[in-house]
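Q: Hi! First time doing this. I have a protein sequence and I read that you can turn it into a structure. Is that right? Here it is:
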Amino acid sequence: MRIDLHTHSTASDGTDTPAELVRNAAAAGLDVVALTDHDTTRGHAEAIAALPQGLTLVTGAELSCRLDGVSMHMLAYLFDPDEPDLLRERELVRDDRVPRAKGMVAKLNDLGVGVTWDQVARIAGDGSVGRPHIASALVELGVVPTVSDAFTRDWLADGGRAYVDKHETDPFEAIRLVKAAGGVTVFAHPAAAERGRTVPESAIVKLAEAGLDGIEVDHMDHDAATRDRLRALAADTGLLTTGSSDYHGSRKTCVPGEYTTDPEVYGEITRRATGAFPVPGAGGRRA
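A: Yes, that's right. Below is the predicted 3D structure, encoded as structure tokens:
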């Protein structure tokens, strides 16, 4: 089995629609794909409707969190999307995205960059607006060559010149909320230092004690030494280890299935979940 547990669609900051995403996942030879848009489950229905035969969808979301001033992301899988407390928290985060993005546009204007809110809104479309949309605007203007080059302290990285905070959930609270909604939690790219500051390993130990299920180890932003260190930490703390592409369509260079999750780990995730269940595809044939 080839299993990719971290992808994004146009419901947040990917460039594939949810339907395109599942078709592309099938074409890439995946057996299981998780749709984990930022702070939203809006793309799930479309993905399920288009799900090809032979591909299973894991419903999820990537929750925006902050611990001791450090931004971090929590992958949440197979939770009940209508559980009111978790839904309310996701809406708080999502509703703060627009004023935050407008604040970043204003900071860029102060820096002499001619990005406009209309430009960012056009790029975001119906998606949950975020930094990658602003980064794409900077690429359009020729300010940076790629989206990744916008995520530096010169521009949009945490603490960068154009960075603006938004409402983010305490990760301990996120674990509690996801568990109460029957879901499973995995700390996304925990050592992706090029994105900005990362939380210390001592914090991951405390999160594990609070019920964190796993950490994402095999990821494009982790080198071999980092992966080895994270695997050792997971072994010491009893955390599951996952691998994922963090696919965003054309907005990033990664492809579906670039990194994958062990089938036994996937099986354990599905065993722990009670809020929702993986959806087997029946809507078409594998490309």
